[in-house]
Amino acid sequence: MSDTIPNKNARKKLLHFEAAGFVFNVLAAAALHFIYELSGKALYAAIFCSVNESVWEHMKIFSIPYVVWGFVEVFCSGVSFKRLAVAKVCGLCVITALIPVLFYTYTGILGRNIAVLDILCGVAAAALAYFASFRTAASAPCPGRWFAAASLVFALYCAATVFFTFAPPQIGIFRDPVSGGYGLPSSFTGFQRPLT
Question: Is position 27 within any domain?
């Protein structure tokens, strides 16, 4: 594995991985939207799934499948690890930035949110994230400093994903529009031991 995409076939293979990743991402995000409730509000599900209807939780359910697919690509795509890591973190930044931008733009214009448009915000953000990842991996140079920066951004993303699920700041992006609450619902029982 070199640090460049050497030929047309390698670029085509990467493009196929990115297209398959997009499909996986959308389907997994749909599943992650419901798994927390279906799991009986289990702790493991709270970390990876949507625990409420806030913008943050929708960012989470689209970005986690993106990260999972990135690990698949590391092992299967033939692209160098550092190059792919930088490209995937670039796409991760796109997906996590675009969801709130698109959501707050359209709700600002319409004055309310519409479920279908909420979903389309996530789908559009995922599509653009995979496009950005492909373009970055296929054509951009990858000096070592970009890998170091990407590693730091990824570590911060992982920490924020877990921390803000359990202790979100009380600002709009974390507010559940259905309950008016933040983070885990008051009915969360994941930290309690079952009665024997």
Answer: yes
H, E, C per residue of 108-174: HHHCCCCHHHHHHHHHHHHHHHHHHHHHHHHHCCCCHHHHHHHHHHHHHHHHHHHHHHHCCCCCHHH
Number of structural domains found in the chain: 1
Is position 36 within any domain?
Answer: yes
> Considering the domain boundaries, does residue 188 fall inside one?
no
Alpha-carbon gap, residue 50 to 33, rounded angstroms: 5
Does residue 70 lie within any of the structural domains? yes
State pLDDT tens for residues 40-91.
Answer: 888 889 989 999 999 999 999 999 999 999 999 988 888 888 889 999 999 9
pTM, whole model, 2 decimals? 0.87
Q: What is the domain extent for residue 106?
A: 8-174
Helix (H, G, I), strand (E, B) or coil at 27: helix
The SS3 of residue 101 is helix
CB crowding 174-196: b at 16 or more within 10 Å, else e: bbbeeeebbbbbeebebeeeeee
